[in-house]
Every structure is written in structure tokens, then in C-alpha cells.
Amino acid sequence: MRESRDLLRLADAVLLPGFVGTTPPDWLRRRLGEGLAGVVLFSRNIAGPAQVAALSAALRAENPAALVATDEESGEVTRLEVATGSSRPGGYALGVVDDVELTEALAMHLGGELADVGITLDFAPSADVNSNPDNPVIGLRAFGADPDLVSRHTRAFVRGMQSAGVAACAKHFPGHGDTSTDSHHGVPVADGSLEHALRPFRAAIDEGVRAVMTGHVLVPSCDPELPATLSHKILTGLLREELGFQGMIVTDGIEMAAVSGEYGIGGASARAIAAGADAICVGGESSDEATAVGVRDTVVRAVREGLLPEERLADAAGRVAALAAWTAGAHAPVPPDGYLGLAAARRAVRVTRRSNAPVLPLTSAAYVVELAPETHLAIDKGTPWGVGEPLARLLPGTAVTRLTAAETTGTAIECLVREAGGRPLVVAVRDAHRHAWQEEALRHLLSVRPDAVVVEMGLPGRSDLGAVHIATHGSARVCGQAAAEVITGVA
After folding, report:
1. What is the pLDDT of residues 105-133, one digit of tens each?
2. What residue ranges define each of the domains in the chain, with the CATH number in brackets?
3. Long-range contacts of range 404-412, CB-CB < 8 Å, 24 or more positions apart?
4. pTM of the predicted protein model
């Protein structure tokens, strides 16, 4: 058994905590100097490229080998562009276009932007096969529902990202797509075809992906008792031994209820490392020094009590260090991508016209209603979305009203109809098929205004709504812009 100080340092060498603020707090600087593996940046840490670059430099001044990681998937889950909305569509839109060269180019340019600000590990792409259309947390983040399509775009994303010198991270192993529960709140069960779910991860490993993120999902066919993050059968038996992955395994946010609910954050961390994980992502809502220290101390206690073999902890720390060493020498300058993201969003739009009347293009100021559902925790609630703002730029005088579920009453809908008057009506929804209140609001609006244009900015459950139905396959800023261009005939 190592001396206490050495063991504490070894435990620190597998932790990637979050923190609050746009500059590193004193406790984080101190812990980095003591050997902390690195950090995870969330939108709360990001104010702009120059600030992120300065932040990364400050972190590495304390520990030159520190990993700086973030969730920059593009599309709905963005950190760098949280204030404006992403300039690139997400995975589902790229799958609809199905141009692997485009996906690779987008990932390469995204990787270049991350590298320019000192981020070395990107928790992307989502390699999940979104085979359950009612999935509350994957959806548009996946490239699609077909394992072969998801596999080829996962490969392309990994190639592009890593060509820029940023480590890609395929997630959420062994697949979070065929689930109907959000692991932030409970334990999802994936009881569909394991082989289908694994196919994109096999592809990512074949492509040389440097990291894989665990999913907090229960896979009864592989381990009926423990979610993947805590399962030795899944992380060591399946991912390491059967699939042959030798890179770094990182957990999804360890504070999520699916794994921490029974064991606490520290207990889940120790069990995840024992199962085969190498790095522990601790961020989300738990981002203070006490949490980070508590996880470290619990991991050390697990070693002393025999729950976690010291050799396994040392192996995990070595894999984290190996990834850090790769990122230190991998940066490759990438030129700006121009309007590649907008071009991709335009190609992902699908239009269904159900009226013989010439509804489009609109040439006068419109009235836009945006029905805004509650988003899951991976999406920052402040991320802009919608078609109203870009449409108002193209058609000055356009009015925009946004309603949540609680605000969408029959009286409110009647007021909207009166306010719209004779102006063209555009209704934007997100995943309407998953939200009965959106479907009911659409039914009410379309019964009065059958000439309305419906813009679906989530997964399109149906395309027979409105005189014209526009599916953007994403809610990123560029997806709204692409829809506005179709509506006005600019495209």
C-alpha cells in the first residue's frame, strides 16, 4: 500500500471536476498543483474565446499536463456558443444529410476552435443509436436510428476532431439510444439489440477514438444488476476485453442520480474505477471543493478497505496521463470554416407542402408562436433557439411569442389567434410527438388557421401538420436560420 500522500495524489490523477466561475478558484489551482487530472468546463465557465484561452492557460500554469474537457457536441449541446446558439447543426441533422465528408469537415473545424482555446478533450460524438423516438435525453444528439448510419458518421466525427489534435470521446457506452428514461433522474434500461447499440462504438474504436464515455444505463442482457458505469462485466469484460479498447474510459457525470443515488458521488466514483473506468467526471450541480475532496478521499478509502485494488487505480491514472500526453503533441492548426455549419443546416431541411395555395414564400411580417418544452440537463436552458428571431431579421415587423407548457392554455391560444390577425402564422415546436400539450396547441391553432406554417425543430414525428411543414432536424441557431430562409424564399 502506498503512503497516504502518494495515494491521495493517485486518486487526484483520475478526477475531472467542474467549478464555478470564468477564472479558476484558489482551491482548483491548488489541487491542480497537487496532481489533479484536469477539469470539465461547462457553460457557466465560458464567456468568450479569449476568456476560455486565458482560463486554459491559467489551469495549465498549475499543471501542464491537465486535461481541459467540455461537452461541445454542436447543435443543441453546445458550450462554446451557449450565448448565441450553435453555428453548426447537431448529429441528427448531419445524419439526415448523410455526407460523411461534411461531418468530418465540421468536426475538424470544431476541433480547431476547441484547440485554439486550449480545450484538449471533447465529450463528443454521441455514438448512440436513437432507436426509441420517445428517448428524452438523446434524440437530436444522435446521428440517427440506423446503426450503420450512426457508425459511419461516428467514424467521420472522430477522424475530424482528432485530426485537429483534440481527443474525441464516443458516448454513452454501451448505448443510451434505446431508452425512455433520463439518467440525470433515474436508471434507464436498454433492453433492445445490444449488437445494434455497440456497432458505432466498434466503429469508433476501429477509427482510433482516444476516449469512451460510459452511460449510466442498465443493460440486462449484459449485467442485470449494475448500470454500465459501475459494471465490471460491461467496462472491463465488454469494452476492454471483447472490443479491445485501450484508451481512456471516462464516466458521464458521476453525480447523476442513476449511479450516485444508491452509493453517493464518492461511492459511485470508487465503484466506477473498480469496474474499469479511468477518469471520473464530476461537474453538473456538484462543483465545489468539498465535493472534489470528498470524492478523492472516498476513492482512497475504497483502496484501503479493499473495494478498489490499488493496481486498478494506478492503471486508471496511467491511462489518463497517456491521453494527456497525446493531446500535448497533437495540436494541428485548422483554418476557419466560413459558413460550413449553415450550409449543413440548409441541407438538412425537409419541406412538405400540403396545400395547393402558394403559402410560401412569405413576403410580409409574420406572427410566430414558439412552443418551448422543458429541456434535459445536458442542454443549457439559456441556449437560444427558434425561428422567430431569424425570421424577424428577414421580415421586419415580425412578432414572436413563446409559450411553455404551463402557459399554453386554451385562452392563451385564442389570444394568440386574435393577435395574429390576418398576418401569416408560423408555429415552431420541438419534439411535438413527445409532448401532448404541444400537439393539443397545434390542433387548436391549425383548426383556426389551416394556412399556418409548422416548423418542427426536434425529431419530426409527423409531417402532415400545417399547410407547409418544415423539419429542420435540429434547434441550433443555424437550423432556425435555414428554416427562415425557406419561409421567405431566400434559400
Report:
1. 999 999 999 999 999 999 999 999 998 88
2. 4-328 (3.20.20.300), 349-488 (3.40.50.1700)
3. 404/372, 404/373, 404/374, 405/373, 405/374, 405/435, 405/437, 408/371, 408/437, 408/438, 408/440, 408/441, 410/444
4. 0.95
